[in-house]
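By way of example, what follows is a protein record of this kind.
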Amino acid sequence: MESGPEAFAGAAFALFGAGLLLWTGVCLRTGTPVADGVGRVTGTVTALLFGTAFLGAGCWMLALL
């Protein structure tokens, strides 16, 4: 019963991180900016860093089940 919220949070974090990494990859491939109002390198590095962090946190939460 206690693992329900942990499973939901892990899945949400993992899906968000994977989506952010996918979005960043598509933006890099097509040449569009990752974020508006920031430099191309800054936006890309920040998105990759947070995408990896969220995906890692989600996988860690799911591994604890």
Q: What stands out?
A: Residues 3-30 form the longest helix (28 residues). The chain has a mean pLDDT of 94. Helices lie at 3-30, 40-63. The two ends are 11 Å apart (CA to CA).
